[in-house]
Amino acid sequence: MVYVFMANGTEEIESLTVVDLLRRVGIDVLTVSITGEKIIKGARGIEIVCDKLLDEIDNDADCLVLPGGMPGTTNLEKCGVLMDMVRAQNEKKKLVAAICAAPTILGHIGLLKEHKACCYPNMEGELDCREVTYSNVTVSDNIITSRGLGTAIDFSLTITELLTNKATSDSLASKIVYNK
């Protein structure tokens, strides 16, 4: 199971690309609103109906995904229950994935100190990580980070590969006419 967390101000493409691509290969994915309402309004004003509310899910996912966007990233970070889930997921060495501004959340809560990470340009100072990278996607142990909307497909394909295998990810890329 993969949870993609949604808040008002979440970047729509960064969140929904993950949902779309993972579902195409049969991975169970739920969008989870942290607002207490199933409908969130994204960074571009698009309303998204989430599958679940935060208090309706358990703490046993294969991957937690934090999309970027503003003020979505700030809203995600302010959610104490979510931050506790992210810390617990990391302690279990299960996948934690964040894109755009959201990797800074992982830096702020101290999860990147021993990791390589990337994020949206000019926010690197907030990562508090072992090494900043400038690749589209960085995988460091159980932490996956990515730079922004333009890297959302790479980010999603990386999550797909780590949850399945390279052949599945490569096949998905081919089916969506994407050159890795």
Give a concise summary.
The protein has helices at 12-24, 72-77, 80-91, 103-108, 152-163, 166-175, and strands at 2-6, 29-33, 39-41, 47-49, 52-53, 63-66, 95-99, 116-117, 131-132, 137-140, 143-146. It is of the alpha/beta class and 180 residues long. The protein starts with a strand and ends in a 5-residue tail after the last helix.
Please characterize this protein's 3D structure:
By secondary structure, the chain is an alpha/beta fold. It has one domain (2-98, 134-169): Class I glutamine amidotransferase (GATase) domain (Rossmann fold). The protein contains 6 helices and 11 strands. A 7-stranded mixed β-sheet has the order 5-2-1-6-7-11-10. A two-stranded antiparallel ribbon has the order 3-4. Strand 10 and strand 11 form a beta hairpin. The protein is globular and about 40 Å long. The mean pLDDT is 98.
Weakly predicted, low-confidence segments = none
**Shape category:** globular
Order of strands, main sheet, comes to 5-2-1-6-7-11-10
Radius of gyration (CA) equals 15 Å
Distance between the termini: 25 Å
CATH architecture: 3-Layer(aba) Sandwich
Strand content: 15-25%
Total tally of structural domains: 1
- Structural class designation: alpha/beta
List the helices and strands and how they pair.
Elements: E1 2-6, H1 12-24, E2 29-33, E3 39-41, E4 47-49, E5 52-53, E6 63-66, H2 72-77, H3 80-91, E7 95-99, H4 103-108, E8 116-117, E9 131-132, E10 137-140, E11 143-146, H5 152-163, H6 166-175
Parallel strand pairs: 1-2, 1-6, 2-5, 6-7, 7-11, 8-9
Antiparallel strand pairs: 3-4, 10-11
